[in-house]
Design brief:
The structure is a single chain. The protein is built from 9 helices and 8 strands. The chain is α/β, with parallel strands linked by helices and 229 residues long. The chain has one domain (6-212): 3-Layer(aba) Sandwich (Rossmann fold), CATH 3.40.50.300. Helix 2 (35-48) packs across helix 3. 39% of the residues are buried. Bound molecules: 2'-deoxycytidine-5'-monophosphate (DC).
């Protein structure tokens, strides 16, 4: 039997990547990897060490840090040198700085290599900005999720409020637009749809609808490749 598939899910913040990728991974019984959490972890540490504007110090710090992601019972957890940072990486301060840290070439090289090692055996749903273009350009199935800015703002604000972080929608919108701009115009692996990725506009889809659509597409590819799901 052929090896299990690599499924790449890319798109901007709030497009529904995480929810969809997690549910898809559960349905397929595949691993799930949130690559954004890795960029967030190093950003959090850079802020903590007050070196967020110093590229070479950030790279040095990353080389000394073992970033681990664990996915269990539907929860994705992130650790840096065995210390859990799952909550801390979702702060507004990290949101505001993560795109600048993600622009650093060497940061990307180190994290992309890690992501490739984790995904090498297949049987994984990996989400991010450059999975289908850079990390796994030969991924078996690729999706590019989008949604309108207003819908993405609504989703992100709701998420923050549910976590007890009350923040005005305007601020969330501004932060999303700012990240979109930096992520999609940066020199190193900008956020863009891979030519062979299937676009999915989730603005008017329910979560079930988007997961089922993607699952069906994955199942078709598996069938064509003789891979058992
Ligand atoms: O998916 P997220 O919002 O948690 O990602 C946080 C940031 O990390 C995002 O604004 C850009 C960066 N990122 C990246 O550059 N490449 C990835 N594969 C994933 C995330």
């Amino acid at each position: 039997m052929n090896k299990k598939l690599i499924v790449a899910i890319d798109g901007p913040a709030g497009s529904g990547k995480s929810t969809t990728a997690k549910l898809l991974a559960n349905k397929l019984n595949y691993l799930y990897l949130d690559t954004g959490a890795m960029y967030r972890a190093i950003t959090f540490l850079a802020l903590k060490h007050k070196i967020v504007k110093n590229e070479s110090e950030i790279v040095k710090l990353l080389k000394e840090t073992d970033i681990e992601l664990i996915y269990e019972n539907g929860n994705s957890r992130v650790f840096a040198n065995k210390i859990e940072l799952s909550e801390e990486i979702r702060s507004h301060e990290v949101n505001s700085n993560v795109s600048d840290v993600s622009k650093i070439k060497q940061v990307r090289e180190i994290l992309v290599q890690k992501q490739r090692e984790i995904g090498a055996l297949g049987g994984i749903v990996m989400e991010g900005r450059d999975i289908g273009t850079v990390v796994f350009p030969h991924a078996d199935v690729k999706f590019f999720l989008t949604a309108t800015i207003d819908e993405r703002t609504k989703r992100r604000t709701k998420e923050m409020v549910e976590k007890g972080k009350h923040i005005h929608e305007d601020l969330v919108k501004e932060s999303l637009l700012n990240r979109d701009k930096i992520d999609s115009t940066r020199k190193e692996s900008p956020l863009q749809k891979a030519e062979d990725a299937t676009p999915v506009d989730t603005s008017f889809l329910t979560i079930d609808e988007q997961v089922n659509f993607i699952y069906d597409e994955v199942a078709k590819v598996a069938l064509s490749k003789g891979v058992e799901l």
